[in-house]
Specification:
Number of helices: 19
Number of strands: 13
Distance between the termini: 45 Å
Structural class: alpha/beta
Radius of gyration: 22 Å
Mean pLDDT: 92
């Protein structure tokens, strides 16, 4: 089905490098991803062939730090050979690097693999996550859409059927209120919204059938059809009816959930393994697809990152492509899915030779593939102010959630913030 490194690897034949020479490439990712998934993948790749050695630079702190380090590297000609850029920040980075000739067009790499390579491994939906202005600058490596984790024991105590997780928001809020009635020491739910980045806010837009940005990525679209107002109404509803808290950080609330003091937890499938490890046998842990209010057209923003090649040397470019093919291949995606719970980006991974049987036997880990068709774009703003835009928007959303401003006022402010800063 997919690439295997051989003694005459395509990367090295393309570069004309002698078979006995070794090319060393340096890649950049963030700290959490490096230790949990990249190090095992790097070791496996380095052990399976003799032509390429992969090493990693000192990791960035998070996606935002990765983004800034790549921009600095572009300015100083100190870019790594490959890197892993968040989907929402890829457009602004790719456009800037493309103008300077510092990022590789991966359409050309895929074309050189033959006619069956693309269709045999990736869906257009997945490849679109790494496309910018119609060009494949990134190969989808990690992919996640928000899902619910829930405590089946608390469901039973609240008189709810854990086999029938709510499929609409009215049913969801009915469940939160029944769980809330269990006692002051029990919190009903958590959803990623004002914690970290704008993935949760974009979830509230896309699940209505809306989109964050115009098709060319240059202007906002989340204000069309009052999507932003409805999103802010839902943000307030999460507190009033759902019992969501704004006075605790994500780590504190994750502890509450894994210790059995919270009913439902809405976050990435990337935490599936760590959640299961922390819960152990304390309660019956399950997962379920995320709630959307437009079943026909609703999407969920795809979190995660794409692998990009920023090497200038042709031999290193070719070597980096060999590594990326492994990472986004059926085996590489199997390793990543087993370690983290991420949605595999290679469709071969869903086959029986890789993860198919595992998903059939472990429904807790299978929720991501049930949402494959819900995977939509995680958009970014043009310019270099995405981090600033989100910090200001998060403060506004918090004010809406806490009832300090109305949903309508908050929604208008979100537009004002984005339009003021995104062209800088």
């Amino acid at each position: 089905m997919f690439y295997k490194v051989s003694a005459t690897a395509l990367a090295l034949s393309l570069s004309g490098l002698a078979a006995e020479a070794k090319v060393t490439i340096t890649c950049l990712t963030n700290a959490g991803h490096l230790t949990r998934q990249h190090e095992p993948l790097m070791k496996e790749f380095n052990a399976m062939q003799d032509e390429i050695e992969v090493v990693y630079a000192a990791p960035a702190k998070n996606y935002g730090d990765t983004h800034l380090r790549l921009f600095r590297g572009s300015a100083t000609n100190t870019l790594p050979d490959c890197a892993f850029e968040a989907y929402n920040q890829l457009p602004s980075l790719a456009r800037a690097l493309a103008e300077r000739g510092q990022i590789v067009n991966l359409d050309e790499m895929m074309a050189a693999e033959g006619s069956d390579f693309k269709d045999g491994n990736y869906t257009d939906q997945m490849l679109n996550l790494g496309r910018v202005d119609g060009v494949q600058y990134g190969m989808p490596f990690n992919a996640s859409v928000i899902q619910w984790y829930y405590n089946a024991d608390l469901f039973r105590q609240a008189g709810l059927d854990p086999d029938k997780f709510p499929t609409d928001w009215d049913g969801f809020f009915d469940a939160t209120q029944k769980i809330d009635a269990l006692g002051d020491d029990i919190d009903p739910m958590f959803m990623w919204l004002i914690n970290g980045d704008d993935w949760g806010f974009q979830t509230l837009i896309l699940q209505q059938g809306g989109q964050m940005m115009s098709d060319d990525g240059q202007s906002i679209a989340f204000s069309e059809n009052d999507y932003h107002i409805e999103a802010m109404k839902m943000a307030r509803r999460l507190v009033v009816e759902g019992g969501a808290r704004t006075d605790q950080d994500r780590a504190t609330q994750f502890t509450a959930f894994t210790e059995g003091r919270m009913g439902m937890w809405g976050l990435s499938p990337a935490g599936a393994r760590s959640a299961a490890e922390r819960v152990g046998d304390a309660f019956e842990l399950r997962s379920a697809p995320f709630t959307v209010w437009n079943d026909a057209d609703g999407k969920l923003p795809t979190g995660g990152n794409a692998a990009i090649i920023t090497a200038s040397d042709p031999e290193k470019q070719a070597a980096a492509w060999e590594y990326i093919k492994f990472l986004t291949g059926a085996r590489g995606q199997q390793v990543t899915a087993e370690i983290t719970g991420y949605l595999p980006t290679n469709k071969g991974t869903l086959g029986t030779d890789y993860m198919g049987e595992f998903y059939a036997q472990n429904p807790y880990y299978a929720t991501p593939i049930k949402q494959y068709d819900r995977a939509g774009p995680w958009s970014g703003y043009p310019g270099t102010q995405s981090e600033k835009i989100w910090r200001d928007q998060a403060s506004t959303i918090r004010a809406v959630m806490e009832g300090e401003v109305t949903p309508e006022e908050g929604a208008a402010k979100l537009v004002e913030i984005a339009e003021k800063l995104m062209k800088r």
